[in-house]
Amino acid sequence: MDLQHLEEIQRDCAQRVVKEDLFKDVRWVGGIDLTFESIKETPTKAWACLVVVQLKDLKPVYTEVVEGTVDFPYIPTFLAFRELPLMLRLYEKAKIKPDVFLIDGQGVAHPRGCGIASHFGVETDSVTIGVAKTKLWGVYREPSPERGSFSPLLYRGSVIGVALRTKAKTAPVFVSVGHKISLKTAIDIVLKTSVFRIPEPIRLAHNTLQRVRKGWLG
Known about the structure:
Blueprint: H1 3-16, E1 28-36, E2 44-54, E3 60-70, H2 79-93, E4 100-104, H3 116-124, E5 128-132, E6 150-155, E7 158-164, E8 173-179, H4 183-192, H5 200-217
Parallel strand pairs: 1-4, 4-5
Antiparallel strand pairs: 1-2, 2-3, 5-8, 6-7, 7-8
Helix pairs in contact: 2-3
């Protein structure tokens, strides 16, 4: 496995990322999540889910699930090479393409500026936002405890994302630009789609996958 070559792919991807709003209206917001039969084993069966909600009331309007085999091992900072092939299959199968995709992972808040959310956005030419449960890269100060508060995620003096409090007195999520969106708008959309800590499209996709995985494993 030539990790140096994969790093070059990520750096090239980072150069193609657009960090400004290239859209007008947002009606539908989608969330993508993945789950695996075994996180530690490779290859392993995996499932990817897209849930699309209406932004105005967060009601789901479309759900799609695909399954497949993942044969790239889990290596930190190379998540896209493990998960992207199944995500692209999901994208191709989806009958509804949302105006914005929320991806469970990093956007530009990545050592080489191209996490899974950015990689997916560049590959599909879609508007994407990275929403991660844990910090991968950069430093930040804990935001104040009220909902909507955030603090910049910094790397070498540059803002690469934010730690955003989507629910009062809960741990923040880490939001970063994926592709074709500004950080300001990304924060706004994540807050508008969040009832609990995790934005509804991703949370609903996660819950769907837990039922699918449980049903398959019996």
